[in-house]
């Protein structure tokens, strides 16, 4: 109980700090630089709002049997699709993250696993859900994650209405929180996503934070990098397995 009250007090202090923080925006100086690099066009606001939607036409989730879905793939890809689907199905309604799937299928590369997940997600054989992180569940286990409206089914988020649309007033709050995340990255270039999760745990679910980071990266504000970190010291010179790579997602400011 004491620990809970202490965490609550710390969260209140952070909220008060954000409310009274002076970001000194007037001190930011932009220096034009000549170059031949072609700037990518920024996404439109309408596209950003549409990207927050996670809707499916009613009755399409799991409408095609998994065995029938596999008929359009060559024989050499069937083993990968079945293996990934089996790991997700064994995880039940809780779902499996990309890391958990990769650890279960050590003989497959992460690139191939991501391809299989995208193929099954596009065909609504698996759905992307989650609160603590992005998790995949099979269509048969998605009932506790998906809400059903009159015309469509949708994954619920804080900015979602009862019809699956985006509530614009809530999106304004999302953009305000996104600004706070951005300035946290600017003040600490190279910080990890886990650091940001801990910093904003009092206000944001980890899954919502990841969605905001993806939106910031899509707008060209930040860059999400995956770095390969090797252990500095071996427990034993005979345990070569300890040399395997440890992956960490790093958020780098593009400034």
UniProtKB/TrEMBL annotation:
Coiled coil: none annotated. One of its GO terms (biological process) is transcription initiation at RNA polymerase III promoter. It comes from the Eukaryota. GO terms for molecular function: DNA binding. One of its GO terms (cellular component) is transcription factor TFIIIC complex. This is RYDR_ITPR domain-containing protein. The lineage of its organism: Eukaryota, Metazoa, Ecdysozoa, Nematoda, Chromadorea.
């Amino acid at each position: 109980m004491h620990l809970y009250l202490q965490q609550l007090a710390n969260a209140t202090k952070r909220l008060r700090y954000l409310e009274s923080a002076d970001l000194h925006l007037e001190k930011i100086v932009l220096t034009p630089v000549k170059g031949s690099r072609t700037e990518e066009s920024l996404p439109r606001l309408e596209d950003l709002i549409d990207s927050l939607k996670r809707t499916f036409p009613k009755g399409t989730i799991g409408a095609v049997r998994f065995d029938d879905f596999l008929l359009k793939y060559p024989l050499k890809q069937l083993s990968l699709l079945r293996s990934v689907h089996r790991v997700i199905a064994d995880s039940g309604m809780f779902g499996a993250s990309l890391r958990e799937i990769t650890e279960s299928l050590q003989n497959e590369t992460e690139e191939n696993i991501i391809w299989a997940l995208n193929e099954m997600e596009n065909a609504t054989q698996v759905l992307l859900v989650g609160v603590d992180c992005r998790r995949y569940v099979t269509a048969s286990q998605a009932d506790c994650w998906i809400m059903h409206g009159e015309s469509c089914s949708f994954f619920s988020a804080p900015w979602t209405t009862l019809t699956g649309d985006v509530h614009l007033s809530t999106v304004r709050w999302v953009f305000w929180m996104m600004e706070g995340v951005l300035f946290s990255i600017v003040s600490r270039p190279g910080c990890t996503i886990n650091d940001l999760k801990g910093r904003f745990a009092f206000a944001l679910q980890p899954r919502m934070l990841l969605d905001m980071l993806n939106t910031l990266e899509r707008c060209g504000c930040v860059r999400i990098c995956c770095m390969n970190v090797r252990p500095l010291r071996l427990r034993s010179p005979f345990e070569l397995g300890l040399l395997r790579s440890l992956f960490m997602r790093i958020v780098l400011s593009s400034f």
